Amino acid sequence: MSLQATCHVIGAGVAGLVAALRLAQSGRQVVLHEATPVAGGRCRALPDGTDNGTHALMGANRAALRFLSDIGARDAWVEAEPEGLPVFDLADGSARRIAASPLAWRDPAKRPPGLSASGILALLRLALPIGDRPVAAAMAAHPVLYRALIEPLTVAALNTPGHEASSARLGVVLRRLGRPGAGALLVARDGLGPDLIAPALRTLEQAGATIRFGARLRAMTEAEGRIIALHFGDDSIMLQARDEIVLALPPWEVARLIPKLRVPERHAPILNLHFAHRGKGPVRFIGVLGGLTQWVLVRPSGVSVTVSAADAEVEEQAPDLAPRAWAEIRAAAKAFGLPGDWPESPPAMRAVKERRATPRHAVGMPPQPLRQIYRNLVLAGDWTWPRLPATIEAAVLSGEAAAKAVPR
């Protein structure tokens, strides 16, 4: 038996990776347990090398960017659209660039349609931490601005339709976008596997952490306010007096292990479509209004589409989705002059459906559990971070907070 206390981190999603690294860097003995054969959670790479989903960061995500720097991966995340986000509107075929940050709206060419003095006042009211109501209701008097900017931002950041999404949660995002450099849009140049997960695991191993894959936590034994045993399938670990646990799992898994804990119960799906389309040129990122596709990520290795708040779309079959999505991708590619061949027939496509991708960020604050549940157990996970929607940024912040909460 080791005389040194061990920190057991359960779950190798982003929150678990961050918590494990911070603990290992502080000199702790860390064991990271992951139920699946791969790390990353919703940010994992698929067996064929493509991403589970299209994940982008903003300059406002300072905690996530700090983590990328710590694992030596910051340079692998490139600013795909430094001149402003290209947005293609299927309704009228218009193609324009829109800046995500209000600081860039001094340039008329980068302002969203429908922006006016009263529209700016509506955005300011939306950004203020006063009250909570559906985003669509808050912007009802500004339908053009809502459609061009606020609805896409709401669906992307909160993964919740605008008619039910929380204006308070969106307000936090808007306040962050008001900082200089906050609107820069960053994507992994080669993919989440090589540009996030692999460097994180490599840095963890260099810091002395042990990583166990295929280790699903089945149950825990509690006594006198402490967890005294962890049960993984046929394997059980009896904890020493000074051992600690960071539970970095999705809410439904935490509820299974700790039934007394209140966790978010309603979730929203995300649909991702990956087309096997080889191309040339730099990484591009395009927004699409009025259709199936919402965000199109174009890499030399392929084209990926994200459909957030995809309640209806996840029920459709891939053969029905492919031609619709590809027609929209072709139109957007031609509108912005993307190089390469864009044939009429869709190439091979893989659909990835995350039915419980994030909690639904509806009006009203969801239950926020305490960080420390037992004397030797703390929680991590994007859903545990107050106010922010469930994003990479929230996952990183929660992982850092969990590591700090572990007693010295």
Describe the structure.
This protein has 408 residues and is an alpha/beta fold. The protein folds into 3 domains: 6-51 and 191-265 and 366-405, 3-Layer(bba) Sandwich (FAD/NAD(P)-binding domain), CATH 3.50.50; 102-182, no CATH class; 267-359, Polyamine Oxidase, Chain A, domain 2 (Alpha-Beta Complex), CATH 3.90.660. The protein is built from 10 helices and 19 strands. The protein has helices at residues 14-25, 62-70, 117-127, 135-138, 143-158, 167-177, 192-206, 251-257, 318-335, 392-405, and strands at 6-10, 29-34, 56-58, 77-79, 85-89, 94-98, 185-188, 210-213, 219-223, 226-232, 235-238, 244-247, 267-275, 284-289, 295-299, 302-308, 349-359, 372-374, 377-379. A 7-stranded mixed sheet has the order 6-5-14-15-16-13-17, with helices on both faces. The chain has a 6-stranded mixed sheet with strand order 8-2-1-12-19-18, covered by helices on one side. A hairpin with a 4-residue loop joins strand 5 (85-89) and strand 6 (94-98).
Describe the secondary structure blueprint for this structure.
Blueprint: E1 6-10, H1 14-25, E2 29-34, E3 56-58, H2 62-70, E4 77-79, E5 85-89, E6 94-98, H3 117-127, H4 135-138, H5 143-158, H6 167-177, E7 185-188, H7 192-206, E8 210-213, E9 219-223, E10 226-232, E11 235-238, E12 244-247, H8 251-257, E13 267-275, E14 284-289, E15 295-299, E16 302-308, H9 318-335, E17 349-359, E18 372-374, E19 377-379, H10 392-405
Parallel strand pairs: 1-2, 1-12, 2-8, 5-14, 12-19
Antiparallel strand pairs: 3-7, 4-7, 5-6, 9-10, 10-11, 13-16, 13-17, 14-15, 15-16, 18-19
